[in-house]
Amino acid sequence: MFKVVNWMIVSRSQLLVDLLDCRWPQEFLVKLAKATPATMSSQLSSHQNSLVVFDLATIDLQQVYQLQKLIEREHYAVKTAFLNFPKQVDAKFLIHPATTAGVFYCDAELSQVSSGLNEILKGRSIIPNDLHKSLLSDIADDESEHLTIREREVLQALLSGSTNLDIANQLFVSESTIKTHLYRAFRKIGVSSRGQAIAWAQTHMHEVRV
């Protein structure tokens, strides 16, 4: 008996959702659920989805990070894929070897996405070569599982109540760079919110607090 495969697209673009809803069910023989960041959690609980596709062009990376953490925690059998993955911003912190099935850059052609999704249906993972090499390089780094000096500086700044913009000004970098440091630090220390990060820092970094 043919088993229905359920996918979900999470996006704030109704146009993209409508276009994919017209194409993907016929092309891949899947049932496509449509969700926004606000409705994803409740819909995942009521549908047996095997793949959640995030449209990174319409959702803030921090929100995607939180949603992916929820999937990892509560829906361990669900895989994730990313459309419109940015090249100019370091978003590697979103990629998790256990859950990430596919990554498609913002300039990927529709044929590339279709080919990749077909491979995902066969149980394979699709990650661009340059991104894959970068991830392997990170893993090979002896300090990859430890906080970098800059990540420690950012966490330390959280203890004083500084905003991302405050920290960016203190460290002479952009606010988006600070967000990236925070996301990577959150994953390493196993927290999913600013409050949890502050609590962790209060416990583990009190000896270097300024």
Structural class: alpha/beta
Uncertain runs are 206-210
Main sheet strand line-up? 2-1-3-4-5
Separate helix tally? 9
Helix content: 40-55%
Secondary structure layout:
Layout: E1 5-10, H1 14-28, E2 30-35, H2 40-46, E3 51-55, H3 61-74, E4 79-85, E5 100-105, H4 110-121, H5 129-140, H6 149-158, H7 164-171, H8 175-189, H9 194-204
Parallel strand pairs: 1-2, 1-3, 3-4, 4-5
Give me a quick take on this structure.
The chain has 210 residues and is of the alpha/beta class.
Written description of the protein model:
The protein is an alpha/beta fold. The chain has helices at 14-28, 40-46, 61-74, 110-121, 129-140, 149-158, 164-171, 175-189, 194-204, and strands at 5-10, 30-35, 51-55, 79-85, 100-105. The chain is built from 9 helices and 5 strands; from the N terminus they run βαβαβαββαααααα. A 5-stranded parallel sheet has the order 2-1-3-4-5, sandwiched between helices. Strand 1, helix 1 (14-28) and strand 2 (30-35) form a beta-alpha-beta unit. Mean pLDDT is 86; it is low at 206-210.
Which key features would you list for this structure?
about 210 residues, alpha/beta, five-stranded parallel β-sheet, 9 helices, about 50% helix, elongated
